[in-house]
Give the backbone structure.
Amino acid sequence: MNKSSLRGVRFSFVALGVSVVALIISLVLVPVLAAWRERQQTPRLAVNSLVKALKTHHKQTERFPEDFRELETRVWKHKKPPDFGPDGRTLSLFNYSYCYQLIDANQAAVWIIPTGPYRQKASTHFILINPNSMRRWKGPALSLNQIRNLPPVPQYTQIAEFGMTEQSPIDLSRGR
């Protein structure tokens, strides 16, 4: 065998080795990236931080805020505030849309609606919060038609029509 044919054989083995390594990496990397993408797009709740901020605002002012903009100004104070929608009552966070409604100085309501490509895997939530407690309901992801027709503060029969069930109330009076 001459030197030029040996070089061709060596190059073939190197190319085969690189191809095998590339195949193994792609077989491992593609599912890992797909799982990471799904985890990033699956709705995750941020209710605790929202309730904490609402409670802090109420403690400072003796009332709940008119909208998320007021909560941003007094409590959150982000360097770059999020978009709260045209009326200041919606916030999108971690593939959930939070729709806020002030009922009176001592009571507010929040619809928490899953969004994104994996919204059907998540639950819809509705909470009524006052300074001392929080009542909450949980149900399946709502259809787009149901979301369009959501009342800001539903009647109990409407909540039941959405397939939502009341969860155990949470006492917020501790730590006050």
Notes: The chain is about 40% helix and 25% strand. The two ends are 88 Å apart (CA to CA). Residues 1-41 form one domain.
